[in-house]
Amino acid sequence: MIAHTLFEPLGAVIVVGGTCLATVLRCGLADTREALASAGRLARPRFDAARARAELAGPVQEMRQDGVIRAEPHHFGDPEFDDVTDALIGTRSLSALQAAHRVHKRRRMVRSRSAARTFEQAAELSPVFGLAGTLVSLTRLPVDPGAAGDFNAAISMAVLTTLYGLLLGNLLFAPLARLIARRAAQEEHERQRVLDWLETQVAPALPHQSSAYSAGHGAGQAGGQAGAGGAPGPGKSR
């Protein structure tokens, strides 16, 4: 009984169909497809930083033992880290690793922002089409005062279309936009942690970084010994 009372086919078509059509016209087909794809990805497992580190641990150990020159690329299905390790092995440079990471990060951020923006537009448009459905229902008010049934049906449609617009915007589209943005921010944070760990692990195995590290470490030790030998003790006289 409640479902029958709250369901108005014409009002639902006006609100849902009008909102979707206006969103496509405003945002474009490409952004709309990306928004739907991003919404579908929410049902998939999140990026697993622990698994990524476990997959990279073996190749990293080989690089530290045998050097980057002898290392073989190791792909485990993550496009970013596959490209990052390829760039690292191919150029033996952390700058290439960071550049590959920036390319993938920029691509992901563009996708997530366009998807969130599309759902935000839909959230803004749905109450507008709720109002449009209300206006359409008011045009169906009977002229004959005796047609009480038609009058009640028109008023019911006016109320329900307004309700549909509010619910669609605030319980579906707006939460989807925020969820996509939060998921993207969390993934970027986890990926950055794995990348920082990877840089720390492979830096000693790279020619330039390892020599710079050794030179800096040796200079620090020499400076400490010179300071210890040249400074007079508290009990010695000048």
TrEMBL record:
Q: How does it sit in the membrane?
A: Multi-pass membrane protein
The GO cellular component terms are: plasma membrane
Region ranges (Disordered): 210-238
Gly residues bias located where? 217-238
Q: Which InterPro entries match?
A: MotA-like, MotA_ExbB_proton_chnl
Segments spanning the bilayer are 6-25, 122-141, 153-173
Instruction: Spell out the subcellular localization from the entry.
Output: Cell membrane; Membrane
Could you tell me the Gene Ontology terms of the biological process aspect for this record?
Answer: bacterial-type flagellum-dependent swarming motility; chemotaxis; protein transport
Sequence ranges assigned to domain MotA/TolQ/ExbB proton channel in this UniProt record: 97-192
The UniProt keyword set, sorted, is: Cell membrane, Membrane, Protein transport, Transmembrane, Transmembrane helix, Transport
Task: Please tell me whether the keyword Transmembrane helix is annotated for this protein.
Answer: yes
Q: Where's it mainly located?
A: membrane
Family under the similarity heading = Belongs to the exbB/tolQ family.
The name on file for this protein is: Chemotaxis protein MotA
